[in-house]
Amino acid sequence: MKQTSKKRALITGITGQDGSYLAEFLASKGYAVFGMIRRASNDPLVRVSDLVRSKKVTILYGNLRDIGSIDRVIVETCPDEIYNLAAQSDVGISFKCPEETTEVNYYGVGRLVNAAMKANPKVRIYQASTSEMFGKTKPPQNERSPFAPVSPYGEAKLKAHQDFVVRYRDAHGLFICSGILFNHESPLRGEHFVTRKITLSMARIRLGLQESFELGNLDAKRDWGYAKDYVEMMWLMLQQNKPQDFVIATGESHTVRVFFLEAANALGMHVSFKGQGLKEVAVDEDTGRIILRINKNFYRPLEVDYLLGDSAKARRALGWKPKTKFTDLVKIMADADLNQVRRKLT
Ligand code: NAP
Ligand code: G4F
């Protein structure tokens, strides 16, 4: 039962990068914030421990694979707004675990949306859609671009967008929006995503704790923004008069190679590339050591080569402007990892 007049927001995926930034943002807006988490064998609350301790966020157990748990979470929280950020969000892993990916990223969305609509037809829902849905579509990509996903992750997210966002909005008048977000990163990014893998490994190499690390395709291009800048857009989409989908991106794209070079620069390291293909390496010019090798196991069976978002619609309708430039984003991440690794040393 509702006990306060505060607006109530339910966030699935609150333990993830975006969930933790969004929880902080909504708490600062005066929302009663509820986070759904799944059972884990170790503490899943590291990113939101301060918010939980200060009672700005209430945690409930639930899993997008389990309809009973979703029903219970919705009945117990009576949300005015739901932010569905929970997902198997790793594109590479989606090739290895396609069933789980479809189960959570497609059927899970259906379970949540149906349960939410049954409890409150006026609920407003944000669905975390993705630029991965564009796949092989030529850049720049915007809301009118065709979708051509190449990964099980992209396919599941696209089906969820078509079946539970677009169709439910048309057929049931549900207030549901897809944020088609391009890659966004931060010091809270999972350590297996390429940007964080680079900044963390390079920080460890810089402090002499690691000799080298391995990457896959250095030539894929991504439109990388700062996660902290992006969560406000999720909220803004649900404050509009009409539910609509929006592309959120910086409009700048860089290769993985450039991200690596920029991270080296941010850490005061001088590096150069030598060799070609799988034999290519990066050398630390100050020590002469190889610090990066290519490993074909980090290549994907199918790659999205070039993502570059056109968020003119969001700029117009939501006043969206990315605040953090690419070089500043890399510096924020590199500095945070250097400090974190140093703290662990003392
Ligand atoms: P993330 O850090 O990987 O977080 C994913 C969250 O989903 C975690 O809290 C995870 O819980 C939870 N989760 C996974 N399976 C679940 C299940 N079966 N039931 C309940 N919760 C489950 O991802 P993120 O980067 O914050 O991204 C948030 C959302 O935006 C995701 O849907 C992602 O696909 C989408 N997206 C992200 C980007 C990006 O660049 N970051 C771009 C476009 C779209 P555990 O902590 O227990 O694993
Ligand atoms: O950091 P990534 O794993 O991100 P990816 O695949 O673009 O997916 C992220 O962004 C999507 C939005 O477009 C989200 F929907 C999704 O949830 C996720 O947040 O890989 C980026 C690029 C890829 O081209 C990959 O092949 O980096 C390349 N890469 C090269 N070496 C690597 C590696 N990626 C990872 N994870 N690890 C490597 O060693």
How do the strands and helices of this protein lay out in sequence?
Elements lengths: L7 E5 L4 H12 L3 E6 L11 H5 L3 E5 L5 H11 L3 E4 L6 H6 L1 H22 L4 E7 L21 H21 L2 E7 L2 E2 L8 H13 L6 E3 L5 E2 L2 E2 H12 L7 E3 L5 E2 H11 L4 E4 L6 E4 L5 E5 L17 H7 L7 H20 L1
Parallel strand pairs: 1-2, 1-4, 2-3, 4-5, 5-6, 6-11, 7-10, 8-15
Antiparallel strand pairs: 9-12, 13-14, 14-15
Helix pairs in contact: 1-8, 3-5, 5-6, 7-9, 7-11, 9-11
The structure holds NADP nicotinamide-adenine-dinucleotide phosphate and ligand G4F.
The site of ligand G4F has 22 residues, from helix 4 and helix 7.
Averaging pLDDT over every residue, what do you get?
97
Order of helices and strands: EHEHEHEHHEHEEHEEEHEEHEEEHH
Bound molecules: NADP nicotinamide-adenine-dinucleotide phosphate, ligand G4F
What does the largest sheet look like?
Answer: 7 strands, parallel
Q: Quickly give the CATH architecture of the largest domain.
A: 3-Layer(aba) Sandwich
Core attributes:
346 residues, alpha/beta, Rossmann fold, seven-stranded parallel beta sheet, four-stranded mixed beta sheet, 11 helices, 15 strands, globular, binds NADP nicotinamide-adenine-dinucleotide phosphate, binds ligand G4F
Nutshell version of this structure?
This protein has helices at 17-28, 49-53, 67-77, 91-96, 98-119, 152-172, 194-206, 227-238, 256-266, 312-318, 326-345; strands at residues 8-12, 32-37, 57-61, 81-84, 124-130, 175-181, 184-185, 213-215, 221-222, 225-226, 246-248, 254-255, 271-274, 281-284, 290-294.
